[in-house]
UniProtKB/TrEMBL annotation:
Residues spanning the membrane: 63-83, 89-108
Domain of life: Bacteria
Keywords, sorted A to Z: Membrane, Transmembrane, Transmembrane helix
Protein name, per record: DUF983 domain-containing protein
């Protein structure tokens, strides 16, 4: 029984540093190499530590997390702006559209990094 317990602790990867590295768009293993080589394309391997990253299967997870976060931020922002300044409807729609698009484009790669780092830390999908 102690052998299996020792085996699971040896195989555990640190979750918090991996996720922080993923949010910074760095390799979840070393924190040095780039995770993405374009907007959302994950590198096959880390350029710094040669960690294979081609196993990742993020699918729709990053998009879902991005919509969830941007939607909550937008809801609070919409309420605050409307109750504080009462702008014209067209002005409010244009401002909130800009906030939504900017927020989604900024968060989407970071959410992809978070999902890939989580998969790496939990050894999912072949990591």
């Amino acid at each position: 029984m102690t052998d299996s317990l020792a085996q699971t602790t040896e195989e555990d990867r640190p979750m918090k540093p991996a996720i922080l590295n993923g949010l910074r768009l760095k390799c979840p293993n070393c924190g040095q190499g780039k995770l993405l080589h374009s907007y959302l394309k994950v590198n096959d391997t880390c350029s710094h530590c040669a960690q294979p990253l081609h196993h990742q299967r993020a699918d729709d997870g990053p998009a879902y997390l991005t919509i969830l976060l941007v939607g909550h931020i937008l809801g609070f922002a919409l309420h605050f702006v409307y109750t504080t300044w009462r702008p014209e409807p067209l002005t409010l729609a244009l401002i909130m559209t800009a906030v939504t698009v900017t927020g989604a484009l900024a968060l989407l790669p970071r959410m992809k990094g978070l999902v890939v780092a989580y998969q790496w830390a939990k050894r999912l999908h072949g990591f």
